[in-house]
From TrEMBL:
SUPFAM superfamilies: Family A G protein-coupled receptor-like. This is Olfactory receptor. Keywords: Cell membrane, Disulfide bond, G-protein coupled receptor, Glycoprotein, Membrane, Olfaction, Receptor, Sensory transduction, Transducer, Transmembrane, Transmembrane helix. Gene3D superfamilies: Rhodopsin 7-helix transmembrane proteins (1.20.1070.10). InterPro entries: GPCR_Rhodpsn, GPCR_Rhodpsn_7TM, Olfact_rcpt, Olfactory_GPCR1. It is found in: Cell membrane. Residues 41-289 form the G-protein coupled receptors family 1 profile domain.
Length: 315
């Protein structure tokens, strides 16, 4: 379909990926190993929590949900990146681009909501421990998770639907490693000033989650510092350390990427920031939740037979 002398764009070209002879194969192998670790690590955490009764607590329920989300969050972008690194056709259809944006941002918002629910869980566990079992019931955990998915998959839908109606002519080169709002909208042949309102809505979503988590942990830190026992303080800090690390990594990179409004970065920094929350965060999370978590390490040991089982012997 054409408009004047211009052809309507039906697919986009990722211009950031190297060809095989330029070193693309090296990046392909590295990214494939990282993707394999993301899937294996998060799947292991998901299975261990499901199978080990000792981990059937609200905190580990949310970690299980996060691992599930991380698998799909990485899968929305990384397989396409791998394809672009080894293929001469570094393209994606318009429909494919819209779907990638929708699922990437929906899963990202859902993950932010689940992290917020986790901060509330830790706040109640440490600041109100006597009422914790009656407040954080399995039913409430399920409701919080369902609400997170509902918000994540509903909030992005109007923006994706609007982008799908925009005309795209002329250039089809996306200067990013995946389909995202700003690089795609920059190619639209129409006024996209409405995106400022959308950016403001996203900013409110990000800041609301950030404030809830930050205020929860400020209060938690105050309560922990007032504990008379050094052992109690250490145990309380250790239960929150993993969540804080994930929170800082996830919200830090997201804030730098999306809370900038009219500010612009170079293509290099745009790509570097994208790599942080698209690849690095899902890659580090399994290590944060398992290697630095004694309960999780013990559960993995029990699953693979490295711990003493009831009626058995230690291997």
């Amino acid at each position: 379909m054409t408009s004047g002398n211009q052809t309507r764009v039906t697919e986009f070209l990722f211009s950031m990926f190297l060809h095989l002879h330029e070193g693309g194969l090296l990046f392909f192998i590295l990214l494939l190993l990282i993707y394999g670790f993301i899937i294996t690590g998060n799947l292991m955490i998901f299975i261990v929590i499901q199978l080990d009764v000792a981990l059937h607590t609200p905190m580990y329920f949310f970690i299980c949900v996060l691992s599930f989300l991380e698998i799909w969050y990485a899968t929305t972008t990384i397989p396409k990146m791998l394809s672009c690194l080894v293929s001469e056709q570094k393209t994606i259809s318009l429909a494919g681009c819209l779907l990638q944006m929708y699922f990437f941002h929906s899963l990202g918002i859902t993950e932010g909501c689940v992290l917020t629910a986790m901060s509330i869980d830790r706040y109640i566990a440490i600041c109100n421990p006597l009422r914790y079992p009656t407040i954080m019931t399995p039913k409430l955990c399920i409701h919080l998770t369902a609400g997170s998915f509902f918000c994540g998959f509903l909030l992005v839908l109007p923006e994706i639907s609007w982008i799908g109606t925009l005309p795209f002519y002329g250039s089809n080169q996306i200067q990013q490693i995946f389909c995202d709002f700003t690089p795609v909208l920059s190619l639209a042949c129409t006024d996209t000033s409405l995106v400022v309102i959308v950016d403001a809505i996203h900013a409110v979503e990000i800041l609301a989650s950030f404030l809830v988590i930050a205020l929860s942990y400020l209060r938690i830190i105050v309560v922990i510092l007032q504990m008379p026992s050094a052992e109690g303080r250490h145990k309380a800090f250790s239960t929150c350390a993993a969540h804080l690390a994930v929170f800082l990594l996830f919200f830090g990179s997201v804030a730098v990427m999306y809370l900038r409004f009219s500010a612009t970065y170079s293509v290099f920094w745009d790509t570097a920031i994208a790599v942080t929350f698209v690849i690095l965060a899902p890659f580090l999370n399994p290590s944060i939740y398992s290697l630095r978590n004694k309960d999780m390490k013990d559960a993995i040991g029990r699953l693979f037979g490295y711990q003493k089982r009831a009626g058995g012997v230690e291997r």
